[in-house]
Amino acid sequence: MFPSDKEHWQELFRQFGSYVIVGGSGAIMEWCCFAGLVYFTRLSYLWSTIIAFVIGLYFNWMLGRAITFKDVVTDRSIWQEMCQIFMAGAIGLILNVILMYGLVEYYGMVKIMAKITATFIVFLWNFAVRKYYIYKI
Asked: Transmembrane residues, as ranges (predicted)?
């Protein structure tokens, strides 16, 4: 599963570095949406988490497809790929909501800091699923 050849690891680090930039952009979009919803509209932090996550996921998919995984050739339609991304994202969303609830309610963390913490953890899930399951590279 993890070959030791140098080219494989270089490609993995290139993709991960690209995904950090793409994911970072998506995360900033998600955090801004979250903050706007929580602090300006007074929507509950859990609903804000869900809405912001979906917006960030869509943005991340579009940017990731255009930059990080642009050279990947698949035999599926763009709709099939999007469905896989959003199904993996649904699991990420569940993780995100559980983390948000635990960090805010049990650890008393400030909401935006809990959101940032949860995003970093779910970020790793998203990269692994895209690399090894969806794009299989």
From this structure: 16-39, 45-64, 85-104, 110-129
Here the tokens at position 131 are 């690399």
pTM of the model: 0.69
Short-list 102, 103, 96, CA closest to 120: 96
Task: Please check whether residue 117 is in contact with residue 49, taking contact to mean a CB–CB distance below 8 angstroms.
Answer: no
Asked if 117 and 123 count as a contact pair (C-beta separation under 8 A), the reply is no
Identify whether 73 is part of a domain: yes
Residue 56 lies in a domain: yes
C-alpha to C-alpha distance for 110 and 107, rounded to whole angstroms: 9
Question: pLDDT band at residue 1, thresholds of 50, 70 and 90?
Answer: very low
pLDDT exceeds 80 at position 53: yes
Alpha-carbon distance of 136 to 134, in angstroms, equals 6
Q: Are 100 and 49 in contact (CB under 8 A)?
A: yes
Cβ-in-10-Å burial (0-12, 13-18, 19+) of 118 comes to buried
Domain that holds residue 96: 9-134
